[in-house]
Specification:
single chain; 672 residues; alpha/beta; Rossmann fold; 2 domains; 6-stranded mixed sheet; two-stranded antiparallel sheet; 28 helices; 12 strands
């Protein structure tokens, strides 16, 4: 198959915006679309290769897979191996566990599944995942495994059958991608029980919604192979116009798209069709051909794979190492370093391993096996040691638990699927008070129970982790677990002895659909919270505000008194881990705190919604900010006091942090 310099030049056009996007250069807000250009190129090249070898009678699956392994694995394994010592020395235990999962996923060509379950591509925490960018390699590898099998089968059934089936798969995949980028379609999917698809991450990370992009290249290769005369006889004007339009579409997507653009979706046709037009019409002498076939573009294109591999780990580890946010200039400098590493990797690793005369197949297999053994051992060790947690003795920063509390029914299990009649009751009498909410409610339960115990009041725990304390709201990737909130409210309605309900939740993540960024370098790990009205049950979409007002009204009509707890300030850093990290580097000179202004901006919608609840029904309002913020330092919310953590992690208060809030709740329930 003839080498085409301009395709390497197109690789350069694709990779540079990706790097600049990850570096935080605002001009390239859609730089992530460069990956889609790579998909089209890959689909075109491997399909062309298969067609030419089939025609020559030289195609074998073994040879095809070996070439892909020589192309992908050596540089990839080198980069992953290079990441492991930095992960060990710089990452916190939870970060190491997340990283080691991505290592194993990368080895199994399944890192896109790992990141699908961990986070979204545009999450703040994604910037701290060194191997996040391998999701696209996993998509390509899965395509490389499946496509040759299907394509070889189809070719034996004729050209028409081949094109027809590929077009049908292309259309189905594009439809899936477009529907996945549409909120209403995701709601319908969730209502139908397809919670695995009711999140944009499905469309972004997984092959079924990405296959169409590679198939654009494949279909172009099929047409180019079977109808070469059409491409070769096009006039100069058509070739100039087609290639210029194609390049313009590609470049425009890099600067016009943003993280808010539904992706992948019909919008993704802009860079992918653009790439296809460049491949189709820039083959012969055109302005675009001369540009892309020039030495600078070809040179960058040749090292684009290694450049792509190196840049994201460098950026991620820089962010992990720095206790505060880094300026764009640092990432531009790291981009230069990544390019230098890419050139060295291409020269000393990529080129030799692609050449069977220099690197034999047995040596390739031994090298890959050795690297995999080391990386699997790293994964196993990180799991056994819970992320090598012995490196950071974070327990020294905990103030310890408070006094024990009596649990009336010792066999109870918290936050599981048992009937609510078997829920945990704290105290010795019939419970008068119930607490509902998510994991923030769970973090308050025992301090609240201890404070109530001094008043001889028992408490029943009805929290459901990750779920809003309202009716008819579900959370993606959790099945129907959040319907237990509805069951909890049903239990309250048939329990007249419970006269007071305490509502506690991490409202901000639900209202904003995002984890917390304290704008000082503290960016919370974890996937964004995708919530959906249970339209299958209620027949229509509702807002969180409506659902909250509805349950408060229902509880009020049932004669319940309600105590609403306003947002507990989030931190962004895992407080004990962050303190351990700072101490290790000799930087822990003061208590940890975050901006009060950031907290108020983050919770503005929450306060507005809670303030709207009627005072006649809400008998008490508790403001945790009064205990955390503006107490020690004006304009700051404290996350530690006296070098003791007020939080167990990034947002859940420790006993020391929760007890003042619990005491405020008790004052609303049983005033002195």
């Amino acid at each position: 198959m003839e080498y085409r310099r301009e395709i390497d030049g197109l690789r350069a056009v694709a990779v540079m915006p990706v790097v600049l996007f990850h570096a935080g250069v605002e001009t390239f807000s859609g730089g992530f679309a460069g990956v889609d250009v790579f998909f089209v190129i890959s689909g075109f090249l491997i399909t062309s290769l298969i067609l030419h070898e089939q025609a020559a009678g030289t195609f074998t699956l073994a040879r095809f897979y070996e070439r892909r392994a020589r192309r992908i694995l050596p540089a990839l394994l080198l980069v992953v191996l290079a990441c492991t010592p930095f992960a060990y020395f710089w990452m916190m235990p939870d970060e190491v566990k997340s990283f080691s999962a991505s290592v194993l996923g990368t080895l199994l060509s399944g890192s896109n599944f790992v990141f699908y379950f961990q986070s979204g591509y545009f999450d703040h925490a994604a910037e701290l995942k060194p191997l996040l960018h391998t999701w696209s390699l996993a998509v390509e590898e899965q395509f490389y495994i499946l496509f040759p099998l299907l394509f070889a089968f189809l070719l034996r059934r004729g050209r028409a059958a081949t094109v027809t089936v590929l077009v049908l798969i292309f259309a189905a995949s594009l439809l899936l991608a477009q529907a996945g980028g549409n909120f209403e379609a995701r709601q319908s999917a969730y209502a139908a029980g397809w919670s695995w698809w009711a999140t944009p991450s499905y469309g972004f990370f997984l092959l079924p919604a990405r296959a169409w992009e590679l198939l654009i290249g494949s279909l172009l290769a099929v047409q180019r192979f079977y109808h070469p005369a059409w491409f070769e006889t096009r006039g100069r004007a058509l070739r100039e116009m087609g290639s210029l339009i194609g390049l313009a579409l590609v470049v425009s997507s890099f600067v016009l798209f943003t993280s808010a653009t539904p992706f992948p979706s019909i919008y993704t046709l802009v860079p992918t069709v653009g790439a296809a037009l460049v491949i189709a019409f820039a083959e012969r002498e055109t302005l675009v051909h001369r540009l892309l076939a020039s030495a600078p573009f070809v040179g960058l294109g040749l090292v684009s794979y290694s450049f792509y591999l190196w840049h994201h780990p460098l950026f991620a580890f820089a962010r992990i190492w720095s206790p505060s946010a880094l300026p764009t200039s640092v990432f531009l400098g790291l981009s230069v370093l990544a390019l230098m590493l890419a050139v060295a990797t291409w020269y000393f690793i990529e080129r030799p391993f692609r050449d069977r005369k220099l690197i034999s197949t047995p040596f390739l297999l031994r090298s890959v096996a050795a690297a995999c053994i080391v990386l699997v051992a790293f994964f196993a060790a990180s799991r056994k040691t819970r992320g090598f947690e012995y490196r950071f003795p974070k327990d020294e920063f905990f103030a310890g638990a408070g006094p024990g509390v009596t649990i009336a029914n010792q066999e109870c299990v918290r936050d599981k699927s048992q009937p609510w009649d078997e829920a945990c009751v704290y105290g010795t009498g019939v419970p008068r008070v119930a607490i509902v909410g998510d994991s923030h409610a769970a973090s308050i339960v025992e301090p609240l129970a201890a404070a109530l115990q001094s008043k001889s009041i028992s408490l029943v725990d009805l929290h459901v982790t990750g779920c809003l304390p309202v009716r008819n709201f579900l959370r993606a990737n959790t099945g129907d677990r959040c319907r237990r909130q509805d069951d909890a409210f049903d239990y309250l309605m048939r329990s007249p002895q419970i006269d007071t309900v305490v509502i506690v939740a991490r409202w901000a993540t639900k209202f904003e659909n995002s984890r917390f960024n304290n704008e000082e370098g503290g960016i919370e790990f974890g996937s964004d919270t995708q919530l959906y009205p249970d339209v299958a049950r209620i027949g229509r979409a509702i807002t969180i505000d409506e659902a909250l007002a509805g349950i408060v009204d229902e509880l009020g009509r049932a004669g319940k008194k309600i105590v609403v707890v306003y947002p507990i300030p989030e931190v962004g850093w895992d407080v004990p881990n962050h303190m351990s990290k700072l101490k290790q580097r000799g930087l822990l000179s003061d208590d940890i705190s975050t901006s009060y202004d950031v907290f108020r901006r983050r919770t503005q919608r929450v306060y507005a919604a809670l303030d709207q609840l009627p005072d006649g029904v809400v008998t008490g309002r508790v403001y945790p900010e009064k205990h955390f913020c503006n107490t020690v330092r004006p304009g700051r919310c404290m996350a530690s006091l006296g070098f003791k953590a007020l939080y167990n992690d990034t947002n859940h208060p420790s006993w020391m942090g929760a007890m003042p809030v619990a005491q405020s709740i008790v004052e609303k329930i049983a005033p002195k």
